[in-house]
Request: fold
Amino acid sequence: MRTNIVTRTLLATTTVAALAAGSLAAAGTSFAAPAAAHPVTSEAVTPQAVNNLGLTTAQAKKVQRWLKSYWHYTGSIDGKLGPNSWKAFQRCLKKYWGYTGPIDGVVGKGTIKGLQRLLKDSYGYRGAIDGIAGSGTKAAFKRFADAH
Reply:
């Protein structure tokens, strides 16, 4: 009988120890899981602003090919008018269409005004030179892209 009591005590102690170890292991896992869910990288993330002003990818590729031929665009022909596409376009707008801002690839009011002057001259834009890329500007820009 004494052997049964020692065996039961030993079994109970072992069970309690196993449960405690399992609880600690689970607690360690639960604290480690969020760290794995949010990996840390050492790379800097630089957003690329793309502004096609309503052009399809195919139309934007036509514009990029034109920019490559005439305005020193050196980027890929990917149909995404990003800063490098707009820098090349700004060179054109600065030379011929009254753009006075920096060649920075930012599609701001000045860039749009220069674009509107170009579009008014040859691509049916009838709106104001206001630096707002509204539906008339976008429709004329599509005509420009289709022509190139």
